[in-house]
Specification:
5 helices; Arc Repressor Mutant, subunit A; three-stranded mixed beta sheet; 145 residues; alpha+beta; 6 strands
Length: 145
């Protein structure tokens, strides 16, 4: 987690929810604040461990689902049959950057500075709703061992 001011994160989270017309409950603010300061996408289990006082598992699931539908959070499939969730700041309601998954330690990262290629298949009649790109390999720590 990034060491940041919790009050500032909660204020930013509340503003994001207000702007999108979503309920601003203390639990949702805490959840979004957690994702704002996260270094990497988090599993629902990891989120639950951080928010066990503020929200139960079902409310976390429902809030994450609402956030995904609103386009402020995206789900990352890592191949471990467990979604990870990360804040999405591009506003595209989809994946706007690739993700890196380390096959050594399991670390998952959003590669926010890496642009995604734009794929258009409209000439062939296909309609693309979402585009995802995953890069798998070894992170710096695992590759140096």
């Amino acid at each position: 987690m990034k060491p940041e001011n919790d009050k500032k994160n909660k204020e930013e989270a509340a503003q994001i929810l207000k702007k999108l017309g979503l309920k601003r409950t203390p639990g949702r603010i805490a959840l979004l604040s957690l994702l704002l300061k996260a270094d990497a996408p988090l599993t629902q289990q990891e989120i639950s461990e951080h928010l066990y006082k503020e929200m139960n598992y079902v409310n976390i699931y429902r809030s994450l689902d609402a956030f995904v539908k609103a386009g402020i959070v995206h789900r990352v499939e890592t191949g471990e049959k467990n979604w990870r969730f990360a804040l999405c700041t591009c506003g595209s309601r989809g994946h706007c950057h690739p993700h890196f998954i380390c096959q050594g330690c399991g670390k998952t990262e959003c590669l926010s500075g890496v642009p995604m290629p734009v794929v258009s298949l409209s000439d062939s009649g296909y309609v693309i709703y979402e585009q995802e790109m995953y890069l798998k390999g070894l992170c710096g720590s695992c590759s140096s061992n």
